[in-house]
Design brief:
flat; 62% helix; mainly alpha; Presequence translocated-associated motor subunit PAM17; 8 helices
C-alpha cells in the first residue's frame, strides 16, 4: 500500500484533469526527461549533435599543434625569400635621383617595395604550411567534409558558446583569448574555461579594487 510520500511525486507530474494514465508515469522516465533537458557543465568539449566525432579531442589537439608548427616553420623561409627576392630585384634597377616616383625618390620607393615583398612572404607562409600539412595528412584533410574540418567547426562552435562578451571588457578586465588560439590540449582547454568564467564574473559584478 502506498503512503502519502510516495504518491505525492506522481501527483506533481499530472496536470489537473489529465486522468490516472498521466499520473502513473514511471519515475525512471521522469529522470531521463530531466537529464536530457539540463545543460552540460562538463569540462570536456561536447560531442557533435549529429553523432560521434571523427577524431578524439586529444588526437585533434595534437594535430592542431602540428598544423600550427608547420605554418610557423614555413613562414620563416617565405619571409626571407620575399626579402631577398624583392631586394635583389629592386637593387638591380637603375635609380635616377632626379626622376621622382609619385614625388618620392626611387630609393625610398624601392626600399618600401622590398619590405612589401617581405610582408607578402610572411603572409603566404601560413597558407603554404597548411597546404603542406594537408598533403602529408591526406586522409584527415580530404573529404566532404574532411575530418579535420568537422573538428575545427565543432571546436570553434564550442569556443563561441563559452567565451565571454568582449563588449563588457575594460582596462582591468580584458577578454581572455577570444578565439581560443592558446587552447592546444585538454588541460589548456579547461584553463581557458576557468579564465572565461572569471572574466564573466568580473564583468557582471565588477572588478574588485586592487588596493583593498
Amino acid at each position: 500500500m502506498l503512503d502519502s510520500k510516495s504518491v505525492r511525486p506522481l501527483l506533481r507530474v499530472g496536470r489537473p484533469g489529465a486522468g490516472t494514465a498521466r499520473a502513473s508515469i514511471p519515475s525512471s522516465s521522469i529522470f531521463i526527461r530531466h537529464a536530457s533537458t539540463s545543460t552540460s557543465t562538463s569540462p570536456n568539449p561536447p560531442q557533435s549533435e549529429s553523432g560521434s566525432l571523427p577524431l578524439a579531442w586529444p588526437r585533434y589537439f595534437a594535430l592542431r599543434r602540428q598544423r600550427r608548427l608547420w605554418s610557423t616553420l614555413t613562414t620563416i623561409p617565405t619571409t626571407v625569400a620575399g626579402l631577398l627576392g624583392g631586394g635583389s630585384y629592386f637593387a638591380s634597377l637603375e635609380a635616377d635621383p632626379t626622376q621622382l616616383i609619385m614625388g618620392i625618390e626611387p630609393m625610398f620607393v624601392y626600399g618600401g617595395a622590398t619590405f612589401g615583398c617581405m610582408a607578402l612572404g610572411y603572409l603566404l607562409g601560413p597558407t603554404l604550411g597548411s597546404s603542406l600539412f594537408s598533403l602529408t595528412h591526406a586522409s584527415l584533410a580530404r573529404g566532404n567534409p574532411a575530418p579535420l574540418e568537422i573538428m575545427d567547426r565543432e571546436f570553434f562552435n564550442h569556443i563561441k558558446r563559452n567565451r565571454g562578451d568582449p563588449s563588457f571588457q575594460s582596462v582591468n578586465n580584458i577578454a581572455p583569448d577570444f578565439y581560443g588560439e592558446k587552447v592546444v590540449s585538454l588541460p589548456s582547454y579547461r584553463r581557458w574555461l576557468r579564465d572565461q568564467a572569471a572574466y564573466k564574473r568580473k564583468a557582471m559584478h565588477g572588478v574588485p579594487d586592487e588596493a583593498s
